[in-house]
Amino acid sequence: MGVVRKQLLSISVLMARGRFFGDTETDELEEAIMAEAAAGNTRLVVNLQDCESMNSVALGVMTRGLANYRGRGGEMKLCGLGKRLKDLFVMTRLIMVFDHYETEEEALASFASVE
Description:
Number of helices: 4
CATH architecture: 2-Layer Sandwich
Number of domains: 1
Strand content: 25-35%
């Protein structure tokens, strides 16, 4: 469980695994997002394919991460939203705030269209 990081050229990918309910997993997610930002990264994909569920605390972490990236002229995108998470993002209307893609490949390709 937790967060696994990988780097693909100038794009960082964080794979969130498990349940994020404000405990150590959520802290680990926040630390991973902020560590990427602190390192000067401006292109981040958060892959939620293996994320079972999250609560408002974790949604707050994601929203603060997005604000940080946008505030620095960067982009943070989501991919792999399963039905449960997609419903959560729709219900909270965050689906309209985050760029989101079905697959990691689509999210990565979306950066190429910006260059």
